[in-house]
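Note to self: user wants both folds in one dump. Writing first protein now.
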Amino acid sequence: MLQGGGVNDSERQIFLLVILIIFLSSSKKSFWFLVFPMCVIYAIYSPIGLMFGKPTYQYVASVFATDFLESKEFFYQIPKVNYLYPFVIIFGVVLYRYIIVRFDIKLYRNKTVVIIAVIFSMLNQSPSEFFKTIIKSSIEVKNELVKLNEIKPKSDWGESFIDKSIYNTYILVIGESARKDYHGAYGYPINNTPFMSRANGYLIDGLMSGGTNTVASLRLMLTKPNVDRWEPNYSLNIIDLIKSAGIETYWISNQGYFGDFDTPISAIASKSDHKFFLKSGDYASKNTSDFILLDKIKDIVINNHNKKFIVVHLYGSHPNACDRINDYKKIINIKDKKYDYLNCYVSSIQKTDLFLEKLNNFMRENDNSYSMIYFSDHGQAHREIGGEIYFNNNRASKLHFDVPLFMISSDDDSRHECKSFKSGFNFVNGIASWVGIKNKKIDSNYSLFDCNDDPNDFGVKKYIESIELELDPAIDLRGK
């Protein structure tokens, strides 16, 4: 039960849980109304907890932001043997009840006193920690969604104006789950990014994402956050900033969409003048390719010659990565099944690179004044399951925050590669500078592409140092 709940399963905690069950079993009612429901909840969560650990804010937020297809893929990642644990837990507790009743076994004396004492002794121990985490995380998510609904008509940017805005079209491409060290452009030994590796523009080595999954990261990177508390400010979001300068906004996404304010990301997207989601409505159960987004972008560029800002949110390398390349080939042949999934992951990054190349080629032919930025929302962590190495976001890697950052523009005639630390918490400042927007709440001197280190990481490096997982560098698939 404790392992399945992802909480402390030391001998002491196991002993305390056993004592709790034994003494609560002194009463038929306390067994069936306390012990049994507790064990059932642990049992239901155990297949997930054995793989991803205890529920956290990020995990609960991901549940809110996940559609049917993502849920199906999520459960496919869980080893089949994990689904036996709920039956083992429930069978075990029922068998225990049968034995103590059948043989009239009593391991207690004064039942009332002992039950009260045991319950209070458990309040700050592992059995109740699981429920406290669920309640705390759920309340945090609920409060954030309530806050989103409260602020939906409001923007606190005030007046903005355009100053030295060079291009007619700005395109912000958001990658998904693409860790920097798996890109050929950043040194990965397999060249899965031929376009990013050779194109003129700026390749920045040093961007740190805002979190370890889509919601946790983008809610901070696409708003001007409270950097001390790591909290987003939805009244200062990137779309409202662009609109405050009189620029038309578009949001084109291959991510799931439920309603305007069902997730922090859809709340920001809903602010756009125009939004298009491949996976909303009838698309919710389809594994749609990122390439389909190109047609929508082409339609916008061809039919709208006004100044515009287009956000393109890819499905990229989202787990399950093998489903991301249904319409694409694997980059190399792998002999060892252990690395099959990583082969899909590396290939999905190559597919994203091809997407960027196709988009850039179209823009060069149809818009002589454009600039495009690509970055990823977060990385992932290795995990070996059933003899095969997978990637997932539900536990943190020391390399989880390292993501690519690439910019290419219509007038680029040279290539620049810079190793400079850039905090995702400054991302909105960087986008404002890129577009040429002036606002009193923006640092007008900040640039993502000045090749200088940000002076403050706002505690990210300290957090990374606290991650207990050993360093898990990219795995070279050559010869595997």
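First done. Writing the second protein, which came from a different request thread.
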Amino acid sequence: MLQAGLYEQVVNKKLSEELGKISEARKYVKPIDKAEASKILAQYLAEAVEKALNVVAEKNKDEEKLKAQIELSNQIIALLKNSADKSSSLEIESKAEQLLAVLKENDPKLAAGKKAKDLIRPETSVAQSSLFTGALHEPQMFSELKKEIASADKIDILVSFIKWSGLRLFIDELKEFCDHGGELRIITTSYMGATDVKAIEELQTLTNAKIF
């Protein structure tokens, strides 16, 4: 039974049946915005695919779970290829691997004996947004920023104000980043005098740094 409240949900057959039992005055349904259709439908499909992959995993033994999920993923991709670019090869390799890093051919790290797998990376995903709540058992934002800085070649920061007490936690990482040719751009404000002058002065000493 549908609970009262606000929704932002694609109407599927199951939901349509439930809505059919509700009077017109009690529900508000409108066509999907054409300009946002791809985004809305992609999100819906992502949730549907995730559920299907979980079901497939539950139906197989531990050693067969991932293989079964890959097979289902490739079946879905095969359907997409009929409508999308047929020349693209989107099938997932049977090795079931995930690319995590690539170094430039002339990266100094290679000369120093380092490999792409040695790159420092944050604990949180670099492909999805993360919410930092400050909980004890979660990664701290400043420590994640340090790791992000270490793996970046260009940094854009948009922040309401800058306090020295916060900046000092990773100013050394920013300095090293800039000294190695990284490009840093920061947009902030002086509204209500909240930004510390010391913080701006320190940032202005960095090479390749632009403060707006």
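Dump finished. Worth passing along: The beta strands are 154-158, 183-187, 209-211.
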